[in-house]
Amino acid sequence: MRSSLLGSFCFLTGAIAAPAAFSPAAFDQNRGGAVLKAPEGDSFASVTGTFTVPPLTGTAKLSLWVGIGESTKQNIVLKGGVTYDATYSTFAAWSPNMNNVTVTTSAASVAANDTITVTVSVESETSGTVVLENKTQNKKSTQVLTAPLKFDPVRLTALTADWFVQAYQANGELVQVPRFGTIAFTACSATLKSGKSVGATGAGTFEIQGTSGQIYSKTTVTADGISLARTSM
């Protein structure tokens, strides 16, 4: 089964929120979370975040991931995290070309209620590293990933740090966002190429929006964490 962990994004506003503003910066039909934009003239070297895997059952399809994107448009993202599609697995990938997914479950297995820390680093314009640590099971995976050849290195600008909860599609199925309760990314931080470390403060939020305009999530950003609550549908 080929699945899309990234899907199509729907940007209804054009800018990420300013550092002091936590109102929604964008809406999407299948994902919620936050995006931190690098200061002018700088870019991200690494990003990290920790989350607890929610208990999911049935036909739910969900991914939780941390990543570095080329810009607020999220056309190129290096990321890693956990997916659920009947069973749990861990992964590292360049998106949106999901032929480049590296499944890391054998090294870093995962189950509901496990605590996972993901650290994504960009070493160059064409390569990066994804480290997944299962703190509960004391397991770790380190993957060095080379960008797909079709990606123009000039575009790998590492201008955003990302923390997301995302439903995805498989075999053309419509996106169905499961009721995952509240998911918190804690100990969120990022290191800029200038050497400065920053927290999540100033990140713009993404909210899940239905086709009729209803909002089905509530994202809250604090200095070191991002909380995403799934509201009623």
Search tags:
233 residues, mainly beta, Jelly Rolls, 8-stranded mixed beta sheet, 8-stranded antiparallel beta sheet, globular, disordered N terminus, glutamic-type endopeptidase activity, lectin, signal, Peptidase_G1
Write the layout of secondary structure elements.
Blueprint: E1 3-4, E2 24-28, E3 31-37, E4 44-52, E5 61-69, E6 77-85, E7 87-95, E8 102-103, E9 115-122, E10 127-134, E11 139-146, E12 160-167, E13 169-170, E14 182-192, E15 197-198, E16 204-208, E17 217-221, E18 226-230
Describe the fold and architecture.
There is one protein chain. By secondary structure, the chain is an all-beta fold. The protein has a single domain, classed as Peptidase G1 (Jelly Rolls), CATH 2.60.120.700. Helix content is 0%, strand content 49%. The chain is built from no helices and 18 strands. Strands 2-16-3-12-5-6-7-8 form an eight-stranded mixed beta sheet, with no helix packed on it. Strands 4, 9, 10, 11, 14, 15, 17 and 18 form an eight-stranded antiparallel beta sheet that branches. A two-stranded antiparallel ribbon has the order 1-13. A hairpin with a 4-residue loop joins β10 and β11. The radius of gyration is 16 Å and the shape is globular. It starts with a strand and ends with a strand.
Task: Give the structure's gist in a few sentences.
By secondary structure, this protein is an all-beta fold.
